[in-house]
Amino acid sequence: MVLILCIGDLHIPHRAQDLPTQFKELLKPGKIHSILCAGNLCSKTVVDYLRGISSDLTIVQGDFDEFTSPEHAVVTVGELKIGVIHGHQVIPWGSPSSLSLLHRQLGVDVLVTAHSHEHKIVKTEEGLQITLGSATGAPNSAKAESTPSFVLLDVDGAKATVYVYQLVDKKVKVDRIDYVKPAAGGSVGAAGASTSTPISAA
Amino acid sequence: MEASDSEQDRILAEAKQAIKRAAYSMRKAMEEDNMREALRFSAAMLSELRTSQLTPQKYYELYMLVFDQLVNLETFFGDEHAKGRTYAQLYELVQHAGNVLPRLYLMVAVGCLYIRAGEAGARDVLADLVELCKGVQHPTRGLFLRAYLSQRSRGLLPDTGSPYEGPAGGNVNDALHFLLSNFVEMNKLWVRMQHQGSVRDREKRERERGQLADLVGKNLTYVSQLDGLGYELYAGQVLPRVLEQIITCKDDIAQQYLFQAVIQVFPDAFHLGTLSALLDALPQLQPGVKVHAVLGSLMDRLAKYAGADAGALARLTSMAAFDRFRAAIAAVLAAQPGVGSAEGVEMYVALMNFSAAVHPNNVDHVNQVLAAAHTALSSRGGLGGDVRAEKALVALLSLPITRYDVVTGLGLSEYPRLMSLLRPRTHKDLATRIVCSVLDSGTRVSSVERVTMLFKFIRPLVHDVAGEGERGEGARGGEAPPTVDDMDDEDVASEQVLVARLLHALHSDDVATHFALLDTARAQLLLGGPRRLRHTLPALGWAGLALVKRLGAGGQGSSSGEVTPTSLVQWLLATGLHLGDAREPLSALRLLLAVGVAASEDAGQEELARDAFEQAFTLYEEGVAEQRARVTGLHSIVGSLHATHVFGPDNWATLVHNAAGYASRLLKRADQVRALCACARLSWQDEAAGDRAGKPGVHVARDAEQVAAMLQRALKAAQAAKRQAEAAARALPYVPPAAPGVPAGASAVGASYVTCFVEVLNHHLTYLELGVDTITPAVVQGVLDEVAGEVVAGRKEGGATDAEALRYWHATLRHVRSRARAGEGDSAHAARFAALQVPPAAADLH
């Protein structure tokens, strides 16, 4: 079991004061193996915070970051290739067909993006597309606030379990989606209700 | 005269030996039932306590040794009494001892047995003993003798309800008389110790006196334990006598210790009634007494008492204890100029704690404490570089922040004034702590007054003050006041990130009020200069943008008071321009783009939106030079433009033209290709979100010709990329075998021109799917064939088609086939894909 934290659009300090305390409780050091950060942290101090959660940290460039990162990154975990890119490069923002174009271009099984501040997980012909919400519930050009969320990926070989952590009415809600990389044209797994979660504050 | 240390050890050892020998003989005599010998040896043993050469600590060792043996002697007396000898006889007999000290110890031992047996009245025997002890005037000897007396007489006092009370034994008044007489005498002995020996040994002597303090204080403990001691008796007799002794002894150590002892041993309820007497006594104490500690413990005790007892709380309030303490502190500071600033401030810390316990919600009291502390310190000319006093002041100023929620704390008008006495660095540290406490508590600051106050509190973080060095009271410590110019970027950043985070704590449910909060904050922030603003203005801008959204949620054109989406956007535009002035072009660019989107989507103001975009473009052209920043900035421009629907055709054409121009001027061809493809989408907008679709003034750009033209420019850029790669290859006469994974045609970003071609093809496919009529299957087929040619050619000619490009190509072909198959729901769309001639599946597996 390899536990990967996918997180993005924190926008600290420009659009948010801090991560919700409920998330901070969950994201204690020692639980997470590596972090894929989709950018827009935005202050460098946030990088240090993330590094405290896990030193294996991959960050890509967000359009509001005050420091420079690679435009995109591809990591291989188990049998899965995971691509991360912030998503402000996708016009129109968050468009499914444009995301798929990017997905083909990166040639990955799982594409992790952010920017829309609204988490969304879809399975397409290209593979699994994870759009991260804002971890701090920051506003963007379209809305005054958003639901804070992040994603944990639990990768086992060609299988990935996606746990979406959301803060709804000050309570952490976890949804779970299973994904299996199709073996030469195989089908993807089904979404299921969460029974257990990989991390909890307890 | 005391001897040297080694000498003392020798004397102590010898004395112990002598005591053991005498005790042995004494016990032997007792076994033989020889009273005369027993008394003789006991006197010999007690004689060892006559030494003057030991320190109190060593003397104590001897005393304990003798004390244990005296217990045996008392048992022996008891046995003798059982055999018919009366205590009257024994009391008479022991008085024959030759030396006064052994005689008095033996009299105390027998006298107490005498009382216990009920053969004599407690009053008379105790009065006799306490008087006789005056015969020993050597401090150490006298103190231990009297300690023995008070220890042995415990439980034998004619206290109320005690068996020893009665016509002969006396009553609680006699018990008090005995204890207080003993106390007064012991204190006199104790104080006199101070005046023995040379001046040189003063420190050592004070230390030794400290070791004996409890012997004296024990008397007060015994007084407090008397069952008959009611408040009347305490207030009428005990306290006046004790205070008189404390004041008249004029001894620093005794006053300090005994005053604390009074506060600690007697019940809090008594202190409530005698508060005036206690407070009035304080200024009469010696200058060397740490009155602040005494007063501090009194306030602390009463504060705890008030916390545990509602009745006490009410009484403290009704007797205006707070005001009396405050007056007492002022009186002490006035009467004793020697009290240091640190001690002065510590008293106010105690008063603050007292106030918090007794009047937890009375902010006015806290303000009064701060004002009083400020007055006290100002009259001394500030802290004057006194580090201890400054530390105490930080402790004082930290209390309101930690104890009250910050919003309450912000009602403290005296706070900033007192805070300004701190040295600049300390002042700033405290300001940082205030910000952190707001952030940690999750407090929201929701009125203009509070925001104004908050910014006064954290002023050192927000802006420098002109001429601070000359005027500032805190600068007297000799430290030059640092300004933002003295700081490195990293320090400025970490400070200002805190301030920026703080801006999100400003909140009101009423949009107009919320806006007033932000405007108040902006006025303060703008005093901070560019190096601060670049960190704080973006946060302020986004707080304002969220506000526009909130207003917009009430429907287009809704307003709150004077605040409309338009006025907000105007304010935001000005904020963005301030950020531009702060020499932070990229940051200002992003903010202005977001303002432009808000002007369009929330305010519906075309002119304002155009203003915002044009200002952003100017910043992009003039301020953003670094290539990565230009690429990212252009993505932001295109993405933001695409999200707007306010622009009429003329403005739109200009804006798109500019954006496309920037795309063509990017340094790397691959970046050009990607940016031009993005620009193409500016001519094929999605519908405006929600209910705005189709409304007047909502424009959706749909220009198929323009899409085709832009894609054509992208294709040309890809072709240019190829020529560039070929030219680069020709420039090298000898081409070494390409290293694995590094194709000859690869650009600096690692993408070969072949990838650029595939990317352009993919964008064509997107428009084919959207059904844009200029991007027909025939047009796409042309591009597809050209790209296929490049892929194949690139594979032959030394590796321009690298593994990445090939994989991307194959993924694209799979996508086309899948679209051709999967379009059951949309036959027209599937047909367009099916019309494409794709190289056979086998071919793309190479």
Can you describe this structure?
The complex is a heterodimer of chains A (202) and B (846). Chain A has 202 residues and is mostly beta strands. Helix content of chain A is 13%, strand content 34%. Chain A has helices spanning 21-26, 44-53, 96-106, and strands spanning 2-7, 34-37, 57-59, 72-77, 80-85, 110-113, 120-124, 127-131, 149-156, 159-168, 171-180, 191-192. In chain A, the strands form two sheets. Chain A has a seven-stranded mixed beta sheet, covered by helices on one side. Chain A has a five-stranded mixed beta sheet with strand order 4-5-6-8-7, with helices on one face. The longest helix of chain A has 11 residues, at 96-106. With 846 residues, chain B is mainly alpha-helical. Chain B is 70% helix and 0% strand. Chain B has helices at residues 5-31, 35-47, 56-82, 87-94, 100-116, 122-132, 139-152, 172-193, 202-224, 231-249, 252-265, 268-281, 291-308, 310-318, 321-335, 341-358, 363-379, 387-403, 406-409, 415-419, 424-441, 448-457, 459-462, 468-471, 489-503, 511-525, 530-552, 565-581, 585-603, 606-623, 627-642, 649-664, 669-680, 704-731, 753-770, 777-796, 803-822, 827-834. At the A-B interface, helix 3 of A face helix 25, helix 27, helix 29, helix 31 and helix 35 of B.
Major pleated sheet of chain A: 7 strands, mixed
Proportion of residues in helical segments of chain A: 10-25%
Kindly report the greatest chain-chain contact and the residue count on each side: A-B, 39 and 64 residues
Q: How many individual helices of chain A?
A: 3
| Average of per-residue pLDDT values of chain A | 90
How would you characterize the largest beta sheet of chain B? none
Oligomer type: heterodimer
End-to-end CA span of chain A: 20 Å
Order of strands side by side in the largest beta sheet of chain A? Answer: 3-2-1-9-10-11-12
Structural Rg of chain A: 15 Å
- Give the overall silhouette of chain B: elongated
Task: Find the structural class of chain B using helix and strand composition.
Answer: mainly alpha
